[in-house]
């Protein structure tokens, strides 16, 4: 049997694409390696980013649904929500930069990803998607007029055939690797991440997400204390690498770092982990009959809301391709316009990423102290918050030039850095 479309991966991108394509009348097969997608095993903070115009969209959370007014679709969601109204960057000496909106609206909103995915799966099944869980995709081959997908189910080899294929199998996509579609991408680094669920963190404010920045905290990457959906339980997000393992960072952060006092009575009640291969994005995310969507094609991550948008547009793109229209090209245009990481500009975000260890802990204390009294506009996004931070610092340029001229030199050097430099 030949399907119109096979989708590898039932994350938010794959599920949304499957629902949209089946609702448009296509015969769809959705393959997923896990048995139950409503159990979230892969580390994810599970919050919607509420930055204005984030990914060229302004999502709205309405009773029973998440609305995407710019892209023109919605997704059902009836689960719990929890608002975060402030992002805070803290230096080693406890100097803080705050990001919040003057009117108190949230910078991010927590949701239950498992429920969201389960709701989407139900929608897929209602629309007639054939769903094969517990099926690991191992490779794909594009034969020009059709595609084969090879996998393993219950210890046995399986293969399926379709006219078109969506690679929606996430940031470490096996589909793309097997097709050689990652060959032109730069692989910057492989990050190891653990999110610890903690009870009993002292002075924990469930409306604030706090980023700890400085070598004293034991990590190059910020260690993030994030509220969970469940009031008094906090999530501690630790990102490391083979050289600087997340469990070692966790020990240093909670036992000896400047914030250790808050964790004296804390207890780990759960953890999720993941590996993230950081590639440059695929500016043209398709080849032949295969379109890569969501994290599979991204620089690090599109976030859940971006993945849903990818799935929505991918379903339309495949339907158009099957009508002999250039749906993949239209998708590519949308993809390039919507995600900041696709612009050459974004690859010069060194300032934001290079805070640690480019600047010493003492220098970060000094810079954060300049901004401590006046909160910056609300922000959560990985591009907006660093930009606001550095714009804020730039407003104190004369003072810095008078007091710390060597920092002005350092700023000039760092704006010349590329993203690759910051990872090296
Ligand atoms: C530490 C961390 C924190 C994050 N926090 C947030 C957050 O707060 N908010 C937010 O919106 N996003 C967050 N994200 C990002 C978010 O998880 C992703 O951007 C989003 O889930 C991408 O969706 P996707 O459908 O493209 O891929 P995924 O969600 O990765 O889905 C891919 C699917 O494919 C399946 N799969 C993978 N390989 C195979 C295979 N070989 N065969 C069959 N199936 C396969 C997987 O099991 C999975 O179901 C975070 C990510 C990390 C790492």
Give the SSE layout:
Layout: E1 2-8, H1 12-23, E2 28-31, E3 47-49, E4 60-62, E5 65-68, E6 73-76, E7 81-84, E8 86-91, E9 96-99, E10 108-111, H2 113-127, E11 130-132, E12 135-142, E13 147-153, E14 156-167, H3 174-179, E15 187-199, E16 208-213, E17 223-227, E18 234-240, H4 246-255, E19 267-279, E20 286-287, E21 290-292, H5 303-322, H6 327-338, H7 350-353, H8 355-358, H9 361-371, H10 384-394, H11 397-403, H12 405-415, H13 419-423
Parallel strand pairs: 1-2, 1-14, 2-11, 8-16, 14-21
Antiparallel strand pairs: 3-10, 4-5, 5-6, 7-10, 8-9, 12-13, 13-14, 15-18, 15-19, 16-17, 17-18, 20-21
List keywords for this structure.
8-stranded mixed β-sheet; 21 strands; alpha+beta; 424 residues; 3 domains; 30% helix; D-Amino Acid Oxidase, Chain A, domain 2; binds flavin-adenine dinucleotide; FAD/NAD(P)-binding domain
Structure in words:
The protein has 424 residues and is an alpha+beta fold. The chain has 3 domains: 180 residues, FAD/NAD(P)-binding domain, CATH 3.50.50; 90 residues, D-Amino Acid Oxidase, Chain A, domain 2 (2-Layer Sandwich), CATH 3.30.9.10; 76 residues, no CATH class. The chain is 30% helix and 29% strand. Strands 1, 2, 11, 12, 13, 14, 20 and 21 form an 8-stranded mixed beta sheet that branches. The protein has a 7-stranded mixed beta sheet with strand order 9-8-16-17-18-15-19. Strands 3-10-7 form a 3-stranded antiparallel beta sheet. β17 and β18 form a beta hairpin. It binds flavin-adenine dinucleotide.
